[in-house]
Amino acid sequence: MNAAARLVEVRVPDMGNFKDVAVIDVLVKPGESIEPEAPLVTLETEKATMDVPSTASGVIEKIHVDKGGKVNAGDLIATVRSAGDVAAPAQAAALAAPSEAAKAAAAASAAVPAGTTGKPTSTVVSTPAQPGSTAGSAPAQGGASAVAELPATLRTDLPPINEPGFSRAHAGPSVRKLARELGVDLTRVAGHGFKGRITHDDVKAFVKELMTSPGAAAGAGAVARSGGGALPGVPAVDFAAFGPVETQPLSRIQRISGPRLHASWVNIPHVTQFDEADITELEALRGKLKESAAQRGIKLTPLAFIVRACVKALQAFPQFNASLDPTGANLILKKYLNVGFAADTPNGLMVPVVSEADRKDIYEVARQLGELSEAARGGKLSAAQMQGGCFTISSLGGIGGTAFTPIINAPEVAILGVSRSTMKPVYQDGTFVPRLMLPLSLSYDHRVIDGAAAVRFTTFLAKTLAEPHTLIEAVP
Ligand code: CAO
Q1: Which range has highest mean pLDDT (26-40, 148-162, 208-222, 378-392)?
Q2: 250, 291, 395, 465, best to mutate for ligand 1 pocket (most atoms within 8 Å of CB)
Q3: From atom 10 of ligand 1, which residue's Cα is the shortest distance away?
Q4: Residue 344 CA: which ligand 1 atom is closest?
Q5: What is the model's pLDDT at position 405?
Q6: Is 362 within 8 Å of 297 (Cβ atoms)?
Q7: What is the pLDDT of residues 38-66, one digit of tens each?
Q8: CB–CB of 412/391 below 8 Å?
Q9: Residue 418: CB within 6 Å of ligand 1?
Q10: Cβ–Cβ under 8 Å, residues 187 and 160
């Protein structure tokens, strides 16, 4: 058999009346090895999301569609160099699915993977239940025991599901069904499956956390037992009734980070302390060191100094380098010092971590900042490079701004926001002198940190930034 004879084309199946269907995710890359039934792309109509699986095992030769693009029945999705394990002539197999896919999309109550019906199909369709559908009213599939175990309050007091977000969630039909049965809003669940997909275990873990963690219930959406109220839902508006609209799916990173930011916002009582640091000397010193750093391939930006100053502040105020344990009754003080920083990437916000920042001098910190930022922007950060952070810095100073209220990267207890430095007249020794002032915005968890401690922290930080010579060497 020659190589060309083993190239298998996988095409978009018939999708009933749906035309120009959005490709919301491309799940594989050329060169990737896949099993038969491996999902290749996720399509989304107004009524359903569907994964189109491969009909052959082998290696992806070429992807013919783009994320964000539109496809119609019969369009070529991928060419697979088959290892010989082809379920059926690929196009025929893919297109053999149409009636099942179309039927499933039309049936608002059906959210069972086509594969589980035992009928031959290569497309899995999920249909979000309609708003207002009763959790648990359908026969449970795989989630029945979990439903039975739920306390009645949890089942009846959950807040309304964010329907647009639910329909966009990166989850398969049976997971959606389970979430419906448990009344879980998938926008709040972090996915740990293939490429961030939400799995059954993720939904169950979410429910478990809701049930076991004191305070988490209210934060995750359930009602506090006394005097609380479910988070009110935002009313759904038919915007198209007022003029033309375009629907753009959130990026995968946004879909993952959104629920985490929301969880942090609703679980942690945030307070933001504003301050200013005089970085006139720091900028002068950076100007002197910049050239020699550049010769070593290092871009020395203010952020490296800010990381070093935060290290000193965290050493001086250990309760800022801490997390509450899951009971909420103990503070876990960390004896290591890893500093995360928010990086703006084309796909959304990412938070890489400079590990052991206390053991690195300014050049090594700057080098890591550059390498991690580049990896973040290229989508090449490993999971390990985003884990273990103790404290986060969100620096918007390269872009602008005067102040903002950053959201704490839970379970950390504080985050430093940095805005653009500007030259200001500062009154010193009876006269105004021009000084370069850097705005600082420290958000902190008020359960752990008092306002007085927060302002001591920012005062210390500002003083440290004003004495930049102390920031060059590592201080383990
Ligand atoms: N004031 C004035 N200028 C600043 C500054 C500040 N506070 N911070 C940085 N700059 C300058 C730098 O000096 C650099 O100028 P030069 O090239 O002349 O030296 C320029 O702005 C660009 O810096 P940079 O962005 O390349 O590097 P950085 O180390 O400052 O930041 C990173 C790196 C990854 C933090 C940044 O690129 C980024 O992504 N910022 C956005 C973070 C974000 O989105 N936060 C929001 C999170 S919540 O939604």
Answers
A1: 378-392
A2: 395
A3: 398
A4: 39
A5: 98
A6: no
A7: 889 888 765 566 778 888 889 999 999 99
A8: yes
A9: yes
A10: no
Q: Is 270 a catalytic residue?
A: no
Give a three-class secondary structure readout of 147-192: HHHCCHHHHHHCCCCCHHHHHHCCECHHHHHHHHHHCCCHHHCCCC
- 441: β partners: 274, 417
Cα(341)–Cα(391) distance, integer angstroms: 8
Would you tell me how many other CB atoms lie within 10 Å of the CB of residue 239? Answer: 10
Atom of ligand 1 nearest to the CA of 439: 7
User: What does pTM read for this prediction?
Assistant: 0.61
Closest residue by CA, ligand 1 atom 49: 349
Residue 100 has which token pair? 């099942």
Contact status, residue 28 vs residue 75, Cβ threshold 8 Å: no
Collapsing DSSP states into helix, strand and coil, what is residue 118? coil
Of 170, 200, 446, 469, catalytic: 446
Beta-bridge mates of residue 313: none
* Span 375-384, pLDDT tens digits: 999 999 999 9
CA distances from 45 to 49, 128, 181, 254, 313 (A): 6, 11, 23, 20, 51
- Check if 366 has its Cβ closer than 6 Å to any atom of ligand 1: no
Containing 349, the helix (H) or strand (E) segment is: strand 348-350
CA of 298 to the centre of ligand 1 (A): 15
Say if residue 211 is exposed, middle or buried (CB neighbours under 10 Å; 0-12, 13-18, 19+).
middle
